[in-house]
Design a protein that fits this description.
239 residues, alpha/beta, Carbamate kinase, 8 helices, 37% helix, globular, binds uridine-5'-diphosphate
Length: 239
């Protein structure tokens, strides 16, 4: 099963892939490798919007589980995504890719606010736009932020680069017999509560007919393979 022709893509990277082989934080060498993959995708003619999670630094749910106020912890998580966005901006610019960071929480010393029409202009000019701070509100995740930006920027697909190579019928870390889907519908993902993205992100993609491609970004060259329709992946779509 292949994707429709893609001109503009939203690439969502989970924060944990920025750790490389570390247990926490940002590994600049690994971020540089990721930036090369993004550069190669851009050089192939794609317009690229990027969203990066914050799970390598802080997750609101983890803070709340240890007694923190959930909303306060979520704001800390959103700030973590801004740090990741700046790390990726640095790595992309070091390999010659012009970028702009737009944050849903305004911080004008370090980046722009989210302004859709300005983001359009950046893409037209060949810049990669990194959207930080998710949707800018607690009780959401960066997956929802990615789905929202993919919809408002009219992206042809949402690529979710993570540590697993697709969507399974059960958790492959706990069940060695888990089977990976080649394709699966949005409705099945929601009905069976398959671990792809949170439900609000999946529903937003369904309602706006944005295919979600789940793949592992950990293996070198995988982004290019997935874009060429040759990678190991799961496509979440209508049928
Ligand atoms: N977050 C939030 N609202 C958003 C996006 C993120 O509150 O719109 C917070 C939330 O606490 C989340 C954290 O930021 O746990 C980091 O994002 P996420 O867990 O989505 O990162 P990932 O799992 O992709 O690394």
């Amino acid at each position: 099963m292949s994707l429709p022709t893609i001109k503009r893509v939203l690439l969502k990277l989970s924060g944990e892939v920025l750790m490389g082989n570390q247990q926490f934080g940002i590994d600049p060498e690994f971020v540089a490798e990721l930036a090369k993959e993004v550069k190669a995708a851009k050089d192939s003619g794609l317009e690229i919007c990027l969203v990066i999670g914050g799970g390598n630094i802080f997750r609101g749910m983890a803070g709340a589980a240890k007694g923190m106020d959930r909303a306060q912890a979520d704001y800390m998580g959103m700030l973590a995504t801004v740090m990741n966005a700046l790390a990726m901006q640095n790595a992309l610019e070091q390999c010659g890719v012009p970028t702009r960071v737009q944050s849903a929480i305004e911080m004008d010393k370090v980046c722009e606010p989210v302004i859709r029409r300005r983001a359009e202009r950046h893409l037209e000019k060949g810049r990669v736009v990194i959207f930080a701070a998710g949707v800018g509100a607690p009780y959401f995740t960066t997956d929802s932020g990615a789905a929202l930006r993919a919809a408002e920027m009219k992206c042809d697909a949402l690529l979710k680069g993570t540590s697993v190579d697709g969507v399974y019928d059960s958790d492959p870390k706990h069940n060695p017999d888990a089977v990976r889907f080649e394709t699966v519908t949005y409705d099945r993902v929601l009905a069976d509560n398959l671990k792809v993205m949170d439900a609000s992100a999946v529903a937003l993609c369904r309602d706006n007919k944005i295919p979600i491609v789940v793949f592992s970004i950990r293996e070198k060259g995988n982004l290019a393979r997935v874009l060429a329709g040759e990678g190991v992946q799961t496509i979440v779509q209508d049928k």
